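Consider the tokenized backbone below.
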């Protein structure tokens, strides 16, 4: 008989540690094998915490193909499907197959420097800024078509599922996660007699490539934010953004969860 292994990842908060122990006990009684170490043979990943814990678990384990679900002990918990008070119901529904799997698209950034290229993946967003909170000037292309010379704090490219995160705080639109698209949102764009930058976000088809090419003076003073993590590249030339072929599988227990989340978290 195949072992029913479930990976558990958790942050270190008191509430998460408490729920972790409760979950482990209940899974054991239900015939599952909880694993606190990442096991590639697991059938499910359970993330205990907030959205940050959920996203860190995916990055740390190289965006596994194993389905993932979250138990919310954080503040917002947009990715977290399960309430801590409903663990018994969650285990019953999972055991009986009363769920569906959503495939959430990732964003891929191919970073070109003078001699190398690097591929970065994001769940929510990837943003290009200048170091030390300076203004950055860059040329923006969509499928090699020059769109604008941007001047401002930076540009953020978000996935549909990430549109409710940093993108939303910048005034970007909410995009349903089922759509194959990216959203490009300006960060404090400058509009004056000298500089002209688009001041609103743009929804771009998922099969298009967005290219950000900073001016030469920013080749060594750039900052790339990938789901909140900072990276710096020497001799940066350009970055190509597209919807990745890789995705993550998220358990969903209600087809209305997206709209319920929007209402409960934002209204």
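A designed sequence for it:
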């Amino acid at each position: 008989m195949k072992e029913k292994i479930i990976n558990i990842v958790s942050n270190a908060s008191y509430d998460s540690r408490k729920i972790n122990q409760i979950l482990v006990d209940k899974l054991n009684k239900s015939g599952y094998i909880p694993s606190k170490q990442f096991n590639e043979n697991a059938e499910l990943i359970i993330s205990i915490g907030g959205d940050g814990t959920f996203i860190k678990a995916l990055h740390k384990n190289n965006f596994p193909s194993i389905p993932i679900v979250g138990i919310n002990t954080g503040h917002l918990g947009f990715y977290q499907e399960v309430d801590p008070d409903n663990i018994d119901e969650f285990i019953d529904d999972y055991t009986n197959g009363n769920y569906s799997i959503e495939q959430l698209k990732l964003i891929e950034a191919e970073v070109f420097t003078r001699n190398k290229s690097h591929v970065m993946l994001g769940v929510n967003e990837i943003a290009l800024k200048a170091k030390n909170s300076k203004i950055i000037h860059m040329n923006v292309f969509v499928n090699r078509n020059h769109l604008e010379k941007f001047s401002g704090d930076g540009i953020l490219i978000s996935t549909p599922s990430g549109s409710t995160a940093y993108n939303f705080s910048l005034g970007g639109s909410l995009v349903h996660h089922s759509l194959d698209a990216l959203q490009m949102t300006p960060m404090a764009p400058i509009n004056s007699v000298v500089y002209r930058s688009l001041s609103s976000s743009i929804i771009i088809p998922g099969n298009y490539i967005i290219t950000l090419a900073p001016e030469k003076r920013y080749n060594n003073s750039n900052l790339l934010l990938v789901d909140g993590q900072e990276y710096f590249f020497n001799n940066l030339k350009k970055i190509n953004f597209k919807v990745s072929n890789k995705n993550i599988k998220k358990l969903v227990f209600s087809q209305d969860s997206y709209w319920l989340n929007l209402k409960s978290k934002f209204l």
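The two ends are 47 Å apart (CA to CA).
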